[in-house]
Amino acid sequence: xxxxxxxxxQPENGNSSLVAVIMGSQSDWDTMKHADETLTKFGVAxxxxxxxxxxxxxxxxxxxxxxxxxxxxxxxxxxxxxxxxAGVMAxxxxxxxxxxxxRSEALNGLDSLLATVQMPGGIPVGxxxxxxxxxxxxxxxxxxxxxNSRPELRKKLHEFRAAQEEKIRATKL
Length: 173
Ligand code: RP5
Fold this sequence. Notes:
This protein has 173 residues and is of the alpha/beta class. The protein contains six helices and five strands, in the order βαβαβαβαβαα. β1, α1 and β2 (46-50) form a beta-alpha-beta unit. It is globular and about 50 Å long.
């Protein structure tokens, strides 16, 4: 059974969050826990929350408008179906917003992908792949953004890439 999302998961070390991982529903957690795990692996202070653009519009607006002042540097926003969460976040902040389209029941995530990626010019959302690969890559992308001004994170990214390559080189079929 899917582990329940801790809707208001905060950094454990007391640091304020650099990255927020938000998602439209508890049902997205099974996918988005992979973003959480990846950020944890890199030691990035982050928080995970359920915020819906449709079901909690004032919370979405409040979260986006106060994100910068709270010290966040990147927002990862996941949603499925008519997926507006990343676009709504981007409308309320100039922080980079990374959108992760959820695999939907009706259209297998194509609806989520198009709703997230097709932002009209002027309000950008960096859209990743549908589902788990998108969740992992959104976290890696957030780390890459943060690494521009944090050499220790840049080093960890190089080590991560090297380990990945080593695994491929060592693969015997
Ligand atoms: C979206 O609707 C959520 O992001 C989720 O992917 C989808 C379905 O939500 P539930 O009906 O499972 O809560 O807002």
